[in-house]
Specification:
Layout (H helix, E strand, L loop, with lengths): L1 E7 L6 E6 L2 E5 L5 H11 L6 E5 L5 H4 L2 H8 L3 E3 L1 H7 L8 E3 L6 E3 L2 E7 L8 E7 L4 E5 L7 H6 L5 E5 L4 H5 L5 H8 L7 H11 L6 E5 L8 H15 L4 E4 L9 E3 L12
The structure holds zinc ion (2 copies).
One zinc ion (ZN) binds next to loops.
């Protein structure tokens, strides 16, 4: 069993955590250390259980609290070598453990795997954590497009945190200048609600228990619109788990990710 904590997600900060057997892994630390501590407290996540901080990429909304948290918690930072090179100057004496396409890293009860994503960062990753008894959680956002590597990494998971960044019509009619619109919608930008729905239908399998839509644009999306695009598509695909939408400003209630043969639970606590 994994407890998934989504402490917040959006262009002003992203932070999730998975916990199993008394060990937790932070995935991204895109709020100040103090804010991560405040949100962890509000969500009931004990930060003293954190054994590592995995970072998808170096952008501030994913990494700005990592340095101070790594020092305070005395834990390693797990990220791609290219991301580490960008962050190393701010990391002082934090330990780096390299994540990448062919790495399988053990951390407590977790096996952590990653693959490159298509995004305008040094060496961005999607990250999967598998617990020893078989449950698994994947985190993939800041995806310009879902590459075959991302599709392969995210197959057969128990829970997926996936970007549903924007409504395509809202983006086209937004006040963003055309060049910014093209960057967001481009292959190194962000995944739309429609693209997220299509990818989730493709990734759906009977063991998928929980889906969290994440990194919603504040200008070009709402939780209701993201849900309205994704929920019917997932339902038609046979999804019977729980669908959540991450919030920028507050943590979600912890999501209990349970794998049980033949039964789909994905309980929200
Ligand atoms: Zn981001
Ligand atoms: Zn980014």
């Amino acid at each position: 069993m994994i407890t998934l904590y989504v402490l917040g997600s959006g262009s002003r900060g992203n932070c999730c955590a998975v916990e199993s057997e008394g060990v937790a892994l932070l995935i991204d630390a895109g709020f100040s250390a103090r804010e991560v501590e405040r949100r962890a407290d509000a969500a009931g996540l004990d930060l003293s259980l954190v054994a590592g901080i995995a970072l998808t990429h170096e952008h501030g909304d994913h990494a700005c609290g990592a340095s101070l948290l790594a020092r305070r918690l005395q834990v390693p930072v797990l990220t791609a070598p290219g991301t580490w090179r960008h962050l190393a100057a701010t990391m002082e004496d934090a330990e780096h453990r390299p994540l990448g396409l062919c790495t399988r890293m053990e951390l407590g009860p977790f096996i952590i795997e990653a693959c490159p994503t298509s995004h305008d960062a040094a060496e961005p990753l999607a990250i999967v954590a598998r617990a020893s008894e078989g449950t698994s959680v994947g985190v993939a956002y800041d995806l310009g497009r879902p590459t075959s590597a991302v599709r392969y990494l995210l197959r057969n998971l128990t829970a997926i945190v996936l970007e549903a960044n924007h409504d395509e019509v809202q983006l086209r009619t937004s006040e963003y200048p055309p060049v910014v619109q093209r960057r967001i919608a481009g292959s190194a930008g962000h995944l739309s609600n429609r693209a997220a729905a299509e990818l989730l239908v493709e990734l759906h399998h009977p063991g998928l228990r929980a889906v969290v839509l994440a990194h919603l644009s504040q200008q070009c999306n709402t939780a209701a619109e993201a849900r309205a695009m994704v929920a019917p598509a997932l339902r038609r695909a046979g999804f019977r788990g729980t669908l959540h939408v991450a919030d920028q400003d507050r943590p979600l209630a912890p999501i209990l990710v349970v794998q049980k043969a033949g039964v789909q639970l994905g309980l929200a606590l």
